Structures are given as structure tokens and as C-alpha cells.
Batch of 3 targets.
Target 1
Amino acid sequence: MYNFLQRLSGVTSFAMSTLMALVVVISLTTPFIPSSPTFDVSLHNVQTTTGRAMDPFDKTSRKAEYARLTFDLDADLSSMFNWNTKLLFAFMTVDYATPGFETNRAVIWDRIIKNPRQAKLKLRKHHNKYALRNYPLTFEDVEGANLTLHINPVPYLGIMYDKPMVSLPFTIPRPSKPAAGAKA
């Protein structure tokens, strides 16, 4: 008959094979667990202004146009938490196209949500957290843009995936120029 170590090796091999099969099933089925988050995003105001970069790594000190957005966000993302959700990463992006680049995406706001109690978001007249500046330093060739809310559930086990929730189209206005003869 077999000795103790051979039996232990057989039981351990069977347990690890079963555990690995369970891990694969969990990681493949988690994205399909139903959730019904509620959200409402509204954009109040879009302003553009001209200024110098406050980036400590950009020493060129060139004037650039910056866009400042004011938005409301009402969201209840607690239904996205399940037994395999470690946290949620919520972020808003502005997507736009320019002649030089077909796709431009800039993150303007983000939040890490660690538990269902923090998943109820109510932001009123909130401004973008990060500066919105186009690469050529002007929004002159930008026709239209989209404000999009994204949610990334981060699982304990499995792959991360992106869920774009809502997208609002808007236009980025040109900054107002001072009147002729006015002192700047």
C-alpha cells in the first residue's frame, strides 16, 4: 500500500486542482453578476481661460487655454459591491477629437470607493479636480466633447474591466478676449 507522504501528496494535488478550477470559474463569472447602479450627471457650466501652466515639471511657461467644468453627480453604486469586489474606482473623462489626434481623453475627476457606505455620491456644483488642457495649448480646433462617467470594479480575484456609465455631449467655448483699448 502507499505510505503517508504519497497519500498526502495525492490529496494535496487534488485539492489544488479543485481550487484552481474554482478560481477560474469565479474570475470568469464575476463580471456577469447583475448590478443596477443609479446615476445622474448634469453639466452646469464650461469656462475657458488663458493662463500659464502650474505644472512643476513643465518649465516652458507658455500660455495655454484651460477649461473648467462645473457638474453635479448623483450616484448610488452600492449595488456594484458583491463578495468579489474589493473597491470601485470612479472617474470622469472628457473625450474630444482634434485634427492632429482622433481621440483625446483627459481624466478630470476621480474617486476610490472602498465600501458600500461610500458608494452613495452626491456632488453639487463640483469642479474638475485635474486641469483640462489640450496638447496644442488651445481648444481652437475642438468641435465638441463628451463628459463620461466610468466605473472600474476592482475584484479580489479576476480581471478589472471598465464600465462607461453615461456620456454627456458639450462644447468647449473660446475664452473671451479683452476689448480693444482695455488694459490686460
Target 2
Amino acid sequence: MSTSFTINVPATSANIGPGFDVMGLSLSLYLTVKARVDPQQPTTPTNISLVYEGENSSGLSLDPNTNLITRTSLYVLACSGHQGFPHPTTVAVNNRIPLGRGLGSSGAAVVAGVLLANAIASLNLSQQRMLDYCLMIEHHPDNVAAALVGGFVASYLIDVDRSGNIPESEADPAVVQQKQREQMAAAADDSVKLPPDNI
């Protein structure tokens, strides 16, 4: 039995006024990802079949290991102990965001990839943890925060020294379980690089 879901990620405008790399605004122009999970289909190493539709799709990679959306999803899944998508999945992308025009197309792709991984493997990541993953790949918090949260946002990157035995500010059991899965995945595969907490 197959299941389907749709992810819409907005375009963004950033560097607003004096808020260079800080302020961002989501727009009413979307990258849409439709995923259909079908466990009855034959498996592949990544379990991803990727198709693009729309005017901003020419020249984009259909290889799940190089496409920004699916590469981001595979990274998040690897950090959670999954090797590829759990079940064969068709990912259909309709990108209405112009590429290379300052509307956050790469940020939207990264956010879509994190949301896709979270949904496809039922990771139940918090919004903050999803932002952490986004910022490991796209180092512009103004774009990805606006795309993930929506609306008008102000955000910035900080360097945080997490060395030593510093307790978490909130001991949420779901967060603890996610961190344990991430640590086990990193221990099992040296190529997995986890994002730091609260970038």
C-alpha cells in the first residue's frame, strides 16, 4: 500500500535593509515536493526515483546522490542511522523558484530535503533541529530560517563551545532519543558528520 505527502517550501528574500545575513522574508512562490512511498516497488541503494517538472527544472541533477534535495535528505537520514530511504519512494519536484536570482532557491531545496527526510522516516525532529541540519549545508540562516519557519525572521549563526559535560537546557525524551540515534549512526559510519547543536 502506497502513501503520499506534499511539501511546500517558500522562496525567500534576504539581506533586507541593515539585516545583512540576518533578516529574511518568505514569499508566495514555492518549491513543491510530492513524495509517493511504495514498499511494493523494487529496492535500490537509495530507494529514490527522482523527477522534475516545471520551468526551473532544466539542467538539475536526477541523481539522488548529487541532487541538492535528495542529497540533503540522505544526509539527515544517515545521521539518524538510515542508509537511504526506508522504502522505495518517487520524489516529484516542481520548482517555481527561479534559480540564481536571489530568491533562496538553494535554501528552499535544503529545507525541502530536511523536511522530506523527517517525513519519510518519521524522525519527529524539532524545528530547531531541522534548522541545525539546514545550516550544516546552507550557511545563510536568513534564507533557510525564513523558508523553514515562514514569515519575517531575524536569525544569526553563533559559535558555541559544547565541550565538557554541559547539560541540555531541556531534557526532552524525543530529543535525547534522536541524539542517541545520531551518535550511533556516527559511530557506525565515519563518513557521517553530525551538525552541532543550535548553530
Target 3
Amino acid sequence: FTRTPWWVIPIYWTPIMLGLLYLGAEYESAQVMAIGFVFGLLSWTLMEYSIHRFVFHYDENIPEGTIYQCAHFLLHGVHHFMPMDPMRLVMPPALSTFLALHILAILSCVFSMGMLHAVCAGLIVGYVLYDECHYWLHHGTSQNLYLNQLKSYHLRHHYKDFKAGFGITSDFWDKVFGTQFVNAEY
């Protein structure tokens, strides 16, 4: 249930994202769809930070010995327990679909049809890029300075200070909300 290979994520979510864009085009122009898509893509960065900080790292507030603690451990704790397990670096589709449906319900109260489709498609692309980036941060290598800094930043979250550095694909929101590491070197 909690073990998922990295390649499952794009295979599962790409057809859904394309379907959303196709359906949304029935309601909105290509320009409006593009704006909604970019908005969703950029919004993902804040959602990524928020989910990681306030959901995945909520564990100190969960009563010990409860089913909630067990569920939370399976959701994210096992990843911190075994951070280099290649099968526990991306979210299983059953769980990500469950979360996505709740996000969709909230967004459907805010956006009109068409725009809703575009924003959700952008969020999905952001999510897929995030999950693939997260996998790479644990197992990839690169000559790219930015990617190597990002990898060091994320691994510092795992091995030195799990109460800081909640951004995965960037440290932007950590800087905005003051949750970057105390010592700027990473």
C-alpha cells in the first residue's frame, strides 16, 4: 500500500491531466485555460510546502498509540524512517487521489467550470514534477549547481533538522514563512 515506484505517478496522472484540459476547453478559451493552468502550476508550490509542513509534519500533535498515529506514520513517517527506500519516495495513487478529490471539492466552490479544469491540470503537473523531483533528490546525481543545492537542502531536512526546510522543489516558501534552516549552509 505505501510502496510505489516513481514511474507510476506520471503514468497515472498524465491521462487525468490531459482529460481535464480537454474537458475544460469545452468551457473556456485557450488563453483562459493557459492562465488557469499556469496559476495551478504555480499554486502547487505553496500547496507542496503547506502539505509537507502542516499535514506530513503534524505528528507531534497526534496522540501516541492511536490509529491516527499509525496512519500518519504510513503517510509520511515511514519515509523519514527509511528516507532512501526507493519505493517510499512518491505518494501512492490511492492516497494522492483521495487528497486530490478533497482539493477538487474545495476548488469547485471557487472556480467556474473550465477554469477549474485548467487550475486542476496545472496542480497535477506541479504535483507530478514535485514527486519526480523528490525521487531524484534522494537517488539522482547531476552536475547542475541548483539541483545539487536543492538535494543538499532536502537531505538536510531528513538527516539534520526535520522541523525546517519543508520546501521540496524550492526553498522559496521556507524563506517567506521563516522555516529555512538556521544555518544557511546546506
